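Researcher: Checking consistency across runs. Here is CHK kinase-like domain-containing protein again:
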Amino acid sequence: MSVNADELEVPQWVDSDFLRMVIEESGKGKNVEVHDFKSTPATALGDHYASIMFRIKVTFTADGIKNGVISLILKTCPDADGLKKELLNNIDSFSSEIYMYTKVLNDCRDILEKCGYRDLLAPRILYTSLEPRKVLVFEDLKELGYFMFPRDAPDEYETRLIFSKLAQLHAATFKLKADGRNDLNFKGSFNISYARKLDFCITGPQFLTEVMETLPGFEPYAQKMRKITVEWLVKKCIEITNQPASFSVLNHGDFHIRNMMFKRNEFDAISEIALVDFQVPHWGSPAYDLLYMALILPYRFREMAFRHYFNIFIDVLVKTGYEGELPTYEQLQQEIKAHSCIDLYFQSTMGLFLHMDRSKMDFQMDAFMTDRALRRSVYNGEAYIAHIKEVVPKLLDEITIE
């Protein structure tokens, strides 16, 4: 099955009355009458975890609209009890995401448009609710020509586009804070104790160590990994996440290629990127998002990507009229180096997701998250091993174990 099993059918409460309310509250029509709707999964297997997402095409009539058709993306919690529902109840991600879409991203968009950066930043939010159930409804970016990235990793040109988009988001939030906004202090995933205790997170460093021990010539690095317990590594990550940074921004918090949608220009080249899934934003060093995205990149791309990011970041700040002292690239380099433990943790956990061969996935994500033997087998993936052979030794050279 190439989709998540719990996205095959919409929850029972998604009916004509609910969709009528969404269309009316979004301003798409008055006195709406829904005639029909059809639902399909909005994402592919392995694209995301926990929340469930549907693409719903609605046919309707309304005042002045005889043959209305609208495509909606609905994001909600699963009704069935289990790890997904428990996770979402404990991390309160829907509150954060609703706040981002309704209070933060629109202001970021306004700042960027004034600076000449007019590409879509994120999809328009049409409806939100926390009670009686957690729901977000978005415009369907697919209807605007956007698509999911068609390959596992971006090339150099696409990498520049991705890091340019991140720089725009970061610079806009930096300016908001500089102008006195005091509502951006989101804590991120390392400050959510429940998330840190997920079995997937606990076993990641151990399984990475076991893989390193099988690689000829990597014995010294395997020995060093053996000294790094998950308790020590997580403690270091929490300390790094919460320590004052040289300069801080509002990080996306889950910044990887499946949380973006892309659009081509008239020459059939990817030219625009819209960001999605703002469930775990984090106020802190920009190194957090930079290293998260770097999980999918060849190591040789890092310097190019980080420098391009910084150049766009400064360009946006200058164009906003920011009058304070500008951050320096040396400060950013220091932040990246200081985040080596977080980078290593990402490599042992989220990095596995990003280097899985999804064409060979014959299991649901619930099984992946709960079945240690299944998850351990995925660490033997060719692409993942090739990546860690290149990256992990460089990180271990930067890390001092007390």
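Researcher: Does this match what you'd expect to see?
Model: One thing to look at in this run: The CA atoms of residues 60 and 68 lie 5 Å apart.
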